[in-house]
């Protein structure tokens, strides 16, 4: 396969046109094709990754940001079909799965890996463990038998030198967590929780009520670790819908009607983790999130829509100092905003694009260090300054000489960039 230069993918990712237009731009740009040394007829970019098609129905997929290989194998009609291998881009590209695919999903026999060891060896359907299989943890056998939608439903569970049978197909059954601890017991239908059941955490009852298709649906009660009621009422698709919520001292704190109201969320120790407006069982409107711990320190306050941060919001460090003051879109920093160091000094001001710096100013110890555009958080088109405000470098399309400093102002790199990377 020909060598692929990062500039190619950067240009296509930043083109504010649809995929077809991106391909047209490259198809008719002979100079660009020559620069990147690739046959455009064998290339396709989509969903944050790119594919290089090879002879005999084979292809390789790469992550669009890191250029790391994430899949290699058989392809048909633009999807993974046949035998192939997946690689974990976050773990130095180690093998994470090898097996059969159909229409882009795992289907057939396959082996799943974790940290170089087999985690699952068995059958898949529509991307999930379905059929006969064997499950391991850290190399030790845990379960062998039948799986349904990633859950073991019928077979033998192993715990050290002990074995015991699991049957969660139809009727009464149990699910197990670490060791021999029961995490659920109740009624099943077709391998899913259906009917009445109970959930446990560290052998403590945390919920009892009704289920439908593996989710809490109908009447139910949720409990704290001390046995006090946390919520009592109706559930819909795993969400509290109609009912009353209590703190750990049994004081009424929430009341929901048709998934609407102001609600406080508590952990099983009775400590507040979230609070805010709810609509249709989801966070909608103004809300707050707190750090996990006994003091309920504010971590975030702002606007939500459909259970995600959407709109203006502020995020704080554990020392109560402001960290971020910006706009959000679907839980990502997106739009205008500012970022601060933990001592309160300004770090960045400008625009964010899908969680990355996009266009703005970057400061070190209160002094402007860089101003310009970024690509995936990397300096791309802009100027760098010394402590006296003098321009000391200039980048164009990620190329040029550059000096980088750590948060303490110490020089950590003095050299050149090519396509936004050190060389």
What labels describe this entry?
423 residues; mainly beta; Histone H3 K4-specific methyltransferase SET7/9 N-terminal domain; twelve-stranded antiparallel β-sheet; 64% strand; globular
Describe the fold and architecture:
There is one protein chain. The model is unreliable at 1-28 (pLDDT under 50). The protein is mainly β and 423 residues long. Among the domains are: 168-296, Histone H3 K4-specific methyltransferase SET7/9 N-terminal domain, CATH 2.20.110; 307-423, Histone H3 K4-specific methyltransferase SET7/9 N-terminal domain (Single Sheet), CATH 2.20.110. The relative contact order is 0.04. β4 and β5 form a beta hairpin. The chain contains three helices and 35 strands. It has helices at residues 6-14, 19-27, 30-36; strands at 43-46, 49-53, 58-63, 69-76, 79-88, 94-102, 105-114, 117-125, 128-137, 140-148, 151-159, 162-167, 171-176, 182-189, 192-201, 204-212, 215-223, 229-236, 239-246, 252-256, 261-266, 272-279, 282-290, 298-305, 308-316, 322-329, 332-340, 346-353, 356-364, 367-375, 378-385, 391-395, 400-405, 411-418, 421-422. The protein has a twelve-stranded antiparallel sheet with strand order 1-2-3-4-5-6-7-8-9-10-11-12, with no helix packed on it. Strands 21-22-23-24-25-26-27-28-29-30-31-32 form a twelve-stranded antiparallel sheet, with no helix packed on it. Helices cover 6% and strands 64% of the residues.
């Amino acid at each position: 396969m020909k060598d692929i230069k990062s500039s190619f993918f950067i240009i296509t990712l930043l083109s504010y046109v649809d995929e077809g237009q991106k391909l047209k731009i490259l198809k008719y740009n002979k100079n660009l094709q020559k620069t990147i040394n690739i046959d455009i007829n064998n290339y396709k970019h989509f969903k944050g990754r790119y594919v290089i098609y090879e002879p005999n129905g084979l292809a390789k997929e790469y992550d669009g940001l890191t250029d790391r290989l994430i899949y290699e194998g058989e392809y048909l009609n633009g999807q993974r079909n046949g035998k192939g291998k997946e690689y974990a881009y976050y773990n130095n590209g180690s093998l994470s799965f090898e097996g059969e695919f159909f229409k882009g999903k795992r289907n057939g026999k396959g082996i799943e890996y974790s940290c170089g060891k087999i985690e699952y060896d068995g059958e898949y359907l529509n991307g999930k463990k379905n059929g006969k299989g064997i499950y391991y943890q850290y190399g030790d056998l845990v379960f062998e038998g039948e799986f349904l939608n990633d859950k073991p439903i019928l077979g033998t569970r192993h715990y050290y030198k002990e074995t015991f049978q699991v049957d969660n197909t139809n009727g009464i059954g149990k699910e197990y967590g670490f060791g021999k601890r029961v995490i659920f017991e109740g009624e099943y239908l077709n391998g899913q929780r259906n009917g009445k059941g109970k959930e446990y955490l560290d052998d403590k009852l945390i919920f009892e009520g009704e289920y439908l298709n593996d989710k809490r649906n109908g009447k139910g009660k949720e409990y704290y670790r001390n046995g006090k009621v946390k919520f009592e009422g109706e559930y819909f698709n795993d969400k509290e819908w109609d009912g009353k919520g209590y703190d750990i001292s049994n004081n009424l704190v929430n009341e929901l009607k048709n998934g609407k109201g102001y609600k406080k969320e508590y952990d099983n120790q009775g400590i507040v983790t979230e609070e805010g407006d709810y609509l249709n069982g989801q966070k909608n409107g103004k809300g707050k999130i707190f750090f996990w711990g006994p003091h309920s320190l504010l971590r975030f306050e702002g606007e939500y829509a459909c259970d995600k941060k959407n709109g203006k919001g502020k995020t704080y460090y554990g020392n109560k100092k402001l960290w971020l003051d910006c706009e959000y879109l679907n839980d990502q920093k997106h739009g205008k905003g500012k970022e601060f160091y933990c001592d309160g000094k300004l770090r960045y001001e400008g625009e964010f694009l899908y969680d990355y710096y996009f266009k703005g100013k970057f400061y070190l110890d209160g002094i402007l260090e860089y101003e310009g555009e970024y690509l995936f958080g990397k300096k791309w088109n802009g100027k760098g300054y010394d402590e006296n405000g003098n321009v000391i470098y200039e980048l164009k399309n990620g190329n040029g000489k550059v000096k980088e400093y750590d948060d303490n102002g110490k020089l950590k790199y003095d050299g050149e960039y090519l396509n936004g990377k050190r060389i």
